[in-house]
Amino acid sequence: MNRRGFWSLRQHDRRPRINLDRYALAQTVTLPTIATDCSGVCYSPVTRTLFMIKNSSNSVYEFTEAGVWLRTITTTGFADCEGICWMYDDVFGISEEDTSSIVIVRIQPGTASLTKAGGTTINTGLGNLDATTGGGFEGVTYDPENHKFYVVKERRSTAPTYLGLGVYEVRMNGSWEIIFDAPTKLGATGLATDLADLFYDVHSRHLFLLGQETERIIETDLSGTVFRTSAVPAPMTQAEGLTFSTDRSTMWVVGEPNEMRRFTVF
Questions:
Q1: Is the previous residue joined to 257 through a cis bond, with omega within 30 degrees of 0?
Q2: Which domains are delineated in the chain?
Q3: What are 155-181's pLDDT values in tens digits?
Q4: Within 13 Å of residue 119, how many CA atoms lie on the same side as its CB?
């Protein structure tokens, strides 16, 4: 197995499955240095820190698990970044809404700035999926076993908004497919009117989808079968990002303008 595959699986590890019913609010944080537009979050077990992205400036911010600011990383050349995921080692994926692309970057201890040209762009060719009614990709998550991404398209602005929902598989060569009919399975059933972010759990091979408007987390398999739903355990202004610790003992939800909620298993 190559180095990427070895470390990716070792670092993601296989831990107890996520049980949404067992998380309780442990901490509420107003994030320092992010005034507005906190859009996505991921956890790195390598650094044991959180990385968040701001969609207006496309800046990346590193915080402790408790929401203490560590550094700000500026960016150049990115187009409306909405999501971020940790992949392995110091490698991360960033999703762009305006282009429906994913940019793979390295964030090392001394990194102060990132350029899109300095990363690897996974171009799906989709462009802005719905320029006038909902844009392109939102949240992004990584599958370490198969070395590919899952991403969500948020919604459309015209009613019914759920007709714009999308859950995509994106491969490293830019090829993609819609993995299940989200408008039918999530929208028409009343579970979601939008999708802001998602997290792939390598243990169960399930997706955890965050609905901002419904303040709901939905657990599905890769075929869209719904296993469990849960309200975000504490209200937020606009929930935008979702991630879990490697041992699944902690869940973080972040959102606009600059909110973080930390939940722990009870």
A1: yes
A2: 3-13+21-265 (2.120.10.30)
A3: 887 788 888 899 999 999 999 999 999
A4: 24
